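Cross-check.
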Amino acid sequence: MIAILCGLESEAAALRGALPRGVAIAVAGARPERALALARALLDAGATALLSVGVAGALDPDLRPGDLLAPAAVRYGPLRLEADAALVAALAERCGARVVEAVAGVDAMAATPADKALLRAA
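Predicted model, tokenized:
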């Protein structure tokens, strides 16, 4: 079973109508400690794969609104969290997602062009 973890309720709401019944969706409220607890609960409930799905502010100027990304990793500060390569490839093939090397995980929104440029450089 694949389970989905979102940061915001609005992200989860956008998915609910498009997914088959039985796909578990949890909302962490953009709180890392809650995301970890929910991920553990979803795995304990039988999830064999976890997807993190959300809306992002593009750091790459080539990205456009609506682009679907399948990152090979998430960079969160000094951490690099690797994604399952087979799942990334399946998302690219079945959903038309663009495979990217990594996306940034942050605790606060990069709201300005300057903030995004700093995050991209990091």
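The chain has a mean pLDDT of 88. The helical segments are 9-16, 32-44, 85-95, 113-121. Passed to J.P. for a second look.
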